[in-house]
Design brief:
Number of strands: 12
Keywords: Signal, Sugar transport, Transport
Family: Belongs to the bacterial solute-binding protein 2 family.
Strand order of the largest sheet: 2-1-3-4-5-11
GO molecular function, one term: carbohydrate binding
Radius of gyration: 21 Å
Pfam families: Peripla_BP_4 (PF13407)
Order of helices and strands: HEHEHEHEEHEHEHEHEHEHEEHH
Structural class: alpha/beta
Shape: globular
CATH superfamily of the largest domain: Response regulator
Distance between the termini: 21 Å
Number of domains: 2
CATH class of the largest domain: Alpha Beta
Strand content: 5-15%
Low-confidence stretches: 1-43
Subcellular location: Cell envelope
């Protein structure tokens, strides 16, 4: 089956009013060079079922748990329609070498497309290229790779970080002492996010970064790192962090209960919103920000992969991303003091504390971005 290179698109998603309140939707980056020609994608034979492989090297995260579960649920829709087989899932805590083995396993099983949440910016390139050379569609989800022939589906991670970093800087009045708690150094999303934070802080020379440590995208580790920072810098003015580490960091502040709380950023997860609500009962003037990092970009990527396998052509005018092969999805939800009660009482009412604020494109929504 032959395939042709598709140019990808930037799309507009839900809750535009929330996004507009925080400065508009993320922008896409024009490609710097045209990618190499790719095989043409032809429709599959009648009755042909596709097999999609998943490579996930990090399972110690509620984000990844929700991501995998959503992938399974969305794939069931296609299985019931006779379009796909069960997903082939390679998911375990592992390093770059281990993820390369995951990818080799998927290649050897003859999957038609691979969705990969990469553990390294460049370490998987040779193996991903091997998959492409075998006619497998490769899509990086959640984290963008600037790799020839690899498609990307996800939010703009740099812009995602800049939203909360700019909020923090403005709440500090452009001055003060802060600390940063990052995820795993070297991971594509973390690299992009920290670049975004650094870009924002360059605009505020009177904000001083006293320390920067990794919280390993882990709540407990984030709490310990924040506790250490509070002990070292008792007069801290603020801090920036990301994902589940924001929950641990706020728990550390709540436990220390300093006379002056640092200005802090949060996470788009019901558990963090519960802590936010708890703090409001003690301090009605408390405010923070929670920017959703949607696990739903992965099942959205699954929908895109299936449509590509069916021979549908992406609108070439919708090109985006660092390598010109990215479906750049705007952040679906941004929570501030202005909409906190609405999101907390509606979205989180019937959801577990671990639920991340999310957004998944429907199959119908995906269709509009393919050439008719």
């Amino acid at each position: 089956m032959k395939r042709r290179q598709f140019a990808l698109f930037a799309i507009t998603l839900m809750l535009a009013t929330l996004i507009a309140a925080c400065g508009g939707t993320p922008t896409t980056t024009a490609p710097t060079a045209a990618p190499a020609p790719q095989p043409t994608t032809a429709p599959a034979p009648e009755g042909r079922k596709f097999t999609i492989g998943i490579s996930n090297p990090f399972i110690s995260s509620e984000y990844r748990t929700q991501m995998i579960q959503s992938l399974i649920e969305v794939n069931k829709e296609y299985m019931e329609r006779g379009i796909t087989n069960e997903l082939v899932i390679e998911s375990a805590d592992t390093d770059v070498a281990g993820q390369i083995q995951q990818l080799q396993n998927l290649i050897n099983k003859g999957v038609d497309a691979i969705l990969v949440n990469p553990s390294d910016v460049n370490g998987l390139n040779d193996t991903l290229q091997e998959a492409i050379n075998k006619g497998i569609i490769v899509i990086s989800v959640d984290q963008e790779l600037n790799t020839p022939g690899v498609y990307n589906v996800g939010i703009d991670q740099k812009e995602w970080a800049k939203i909360s970093a700019r909020w923090l800087a403005e709440k500090l009045g452009g001055q003060g002492n802060i600390v940063l708690i990052e995820g795993f150094p070297g991971h594509p999303a973390n690299v992009a996010r920290m670049e975004g934070v650094e870009e924002v802080l360059k605009e505020y020379p009177n904000i001083k970064v006293l320390g920067r440590e990794t919280g390993k995208w882990d709540e407990a580790t984030g709490q310990q790192v924040m506790s250490n920072f509070l002990a070292s810098f008792p007069n801290l003015d603020g801090y920036w962090t990301q994902d589940g580490m924001a929950i641990g960091a706020m728990q550390a502040v709540m436990a220390a209960n300093p006379s002056k709380w640092p200005v802090l950023v949060g996470e788009g997860r019901c558990q963090f919103l519960q802590l936010w609500d708890q703090r409001l009962k003690e301090d009605p003037n408390f405010e923070t920000i929670a920017v959703a990092n949607p696990p739903g970009v992965s099942p959205t990527g699954l929908r895109i992969a299936i449509n590509m396998l069916q021979g549908k052509q992406v609108d070439k005018s919708k090109l985006g991303g660092a390598n010109g092969l990215s479906f750049v999805i705007p952040v679906p939800v941004i929570v501030t003091k202005d909409n906190f009660q609405e999101v907390f009482t509606t979205v989180c009412k019937d959801k577990p504390a671990t639920y991340l604020l999310d957004g998944i494109m429907t199959d119908e929504e995906v269709q509009q971005f393919f050439v008719k």
